[in-house]
Amino acid sequence: MLRLLAAVGAVLTLFVGVAGASAAEPIKLGITPVGVEGSYFTLTMSPGESRDLTVQLANAGSETVRTRTYPADAYTIINGGFGAKLDEEPTSGVTTWLSYPAATLELAARTATDRAFVVKVPADAKPGEYITSLVIQNADPVAGATEEGSGSIAFRQVIRQVIAVAITVPGPRTPALRFGGATHRTVAENSSVAVAVQNTGNVRLKPAGEFVVNEAAGKELSRVPIEMDSFYAGTETFVELPFGQRLNPGDYTASLALADEFGKVSAASGPLAFSVPWPEADTIPQPIGAGSTVAAVDQAASTPAPAASPWFVALAAGAGAMLAVMLSALGFFVWRTARRRAARPS
């Protein structure tokens, strides 16, 4: 038994050593506004006005990094929040108000450089809140933390740092919301239902409300409170509700009601029809090994499932791999002991 424990201990040491393999020095880039308070630009400008601004691009790492810096359209991510488009994606709208050409720059270790640019509001700009962004990232993808000699999945990554440029053109505030259709998709064998929403007004909102899913016959499956993060003026996104199982194939309705107390606006979608197809008819690929049929399940208490923590998933995967290694070692020990006993003279 002591020899078995020693063998298992050696295997565990190997496992931990693999999981803890160190990566190269991480990329440490930064982009910050110069001469203003806060971590991003908040401007109030009139139509036809221009303003000279400066950002500082920094490399706090220990190695020279070839960087890319560029302006990027801002958008609202699913369920609210700030997002910025990627390098080389087309720019439009308020992003074109910035004279900030995309560039590739080499930044030496522990150095920073200032870059000036101009914001010019068009003479015909309408009142409202506008938002765009500036980005810095490494131009050459770097190896992920588990690539070198680990035997794990190798990956390469780009590290982005983004700051917002928020511009308010004074005038009347006109908050407004509009709903699109409802859709269903399958994610990791579970259902996810989404309703398209548009901020058709001219101010940022942070709406809250309720998301209800019913069967076509009217039976209520889920009623969940919703709290969106920032929903930027002139953008569209989805309010998405994940479930802890796959809904039975069939017809359903989703209803979404949202209200923003600060913006003094509220809206309700009413019932929006959507269908859950059989797996082979689903519009996105099913996991490998998914069956061609789905057994009906009791949906009386179907409730959305919170997203699993990536740390918990990683821990569970690591624990599973560790258990498999231990069982393999135990099986080998038992097999070898049995052979030795069989080989002894009687």
Plain-language structure description:
This protein has 346 residues and is α+β, with helices and mostly antiparallel strands. It has two domains: 25-169, Immunoglobulin-like (Sandwich), CATH 2.60.40; 177-281, Sandwich (Immunoglobulin-like), CATH 2.60.40. 15% of the residues lie in helices and 40% in strands. The chain has helices at residues 2-19, 310-343, and strands spanning 29-33, 41-44, 50-59, 65-76, 82-84, 98-99, 103-107, 111-120, 128-138, 142-143, 156-157, 160-169, 177-187, 190-199, 208-215, 220-227, 236-242, 250-260, 265-268, 272-276. Strands 2, 4, 5, 7, 9 and 12 form a six-stranded mixed sheet that branches. Strands 15, 16, 18, 19 and 20 form a five-stranded antiparallel sheet that branches. A four-stranded antiparallel sheet has the order 1-3-8-6, with no helix packed on it. Strand 18 (250-260) and strand 19 form a beta hairpin. Helix 1 (2-19) packs antiparallel against helix 2. The longest helix has 34 residues, at 310-343. It is flat, with a radius of gyration of 27 Å.
